[in-house]
Write the structure tokens for this entry.
Amino acid sequence: MHYLDNSATTQVCPEAAQAALEAMTVTFGNPSSTHTAGREAKKLLDRSRASVAKALGCRPEELIFTSCGSESDNWALLSGADAMRRKGKHIISSMAEHDAIRRALDLLEAQGYEITRLKPDRSGAVPVSDVAAALREDTVLISLMLVNNETGAVSDIPGVASLLKRTGSQALLHTDAVQAFLKIPFTPASLGADLISVSGHKVHAPKGVGALYVRKGLRMKPMIVGGGQEEGRRAGTEATAQIAAFAAACDAAYPHLRENAEKMRLQREELVRRLQADIPELTVIGGGAPHILSVSLPGWRSEVLMNFLEAREVFVSKSSACKKGGRSHVLEAMGLDAKTIDGALRIGLSRFTAQADLDALCLGLREARATLAHR
């Protein structure tokens, strides 16, 4: 199998799988219990929080574990807007965000907030100048994706943070960094963000765990109420197995972040070079991050190409997995023509991507071009 859909999810690494197994079979107590088994589970939870916080570059107490990136996104927007509601009701985001952001914005709009949805540029990123033009005195929240999940475009979040500081804006700054975490170097300090969403299954941990960075001093209303877990910020018994696995995946990848990013950058460059040589009409869409390559074969249908590749055990996608086959709103927002959108493929690399995977993809697309009918 040649798996090249790592932007949808990643293979769980051995370190994470082992950590999850041990948490489920050895350190399986409830972290809130006061007996020995509970105290051992609490120690595991604390160690895991410290590991993920180290990889993110924040204090452990600034990190709250969630069930996924979507929950982190929802919480950041809904509670962030609520925390600022007395200061204004204007929010800035973009038309190229993940559906977890888009749907949360729809909810806020229904509650009376005014949403400015900025159009991305031709790479899929959102220019700081456009944010500056949309910024108002009553703007209380800005949410922009750091790395676009479909094109790999990198938005200038530090530039937005500098804009807010320079203008004296009161707005909170949130970034969905799910596709950026452990793929490109950043910290909360380098971004200047107040809220940052990350997810485990994009970095070789299991599905079902994510985290939200909340800047120290910023009070966020819980979305889930009940017990006093996560220092009273998110109720519910912590998913210690997934959290331990998330930490193990971070411990395995973080020391090699830059070399892994460079490896993927070179692989991406190789793919662009080879595919453009084999398929002259192929279009590269956007770009910026080392691990995401969006291309289009205008005139061929994405679904047909994907099925052709799948028959050869090469797995790619055409947009976010959350779209479930729907048309990409990101590519539409970028203003691409229908043929380019309908022929688009997203190739997602990881630190485990091998040369054989690249070769299989290039061969498969070359054969697809020669075999499939052009429409």
User: Anything to note?
Assistant: The chain has 13 helices and twelve strands. The chain has a mean pLDDT of 95.
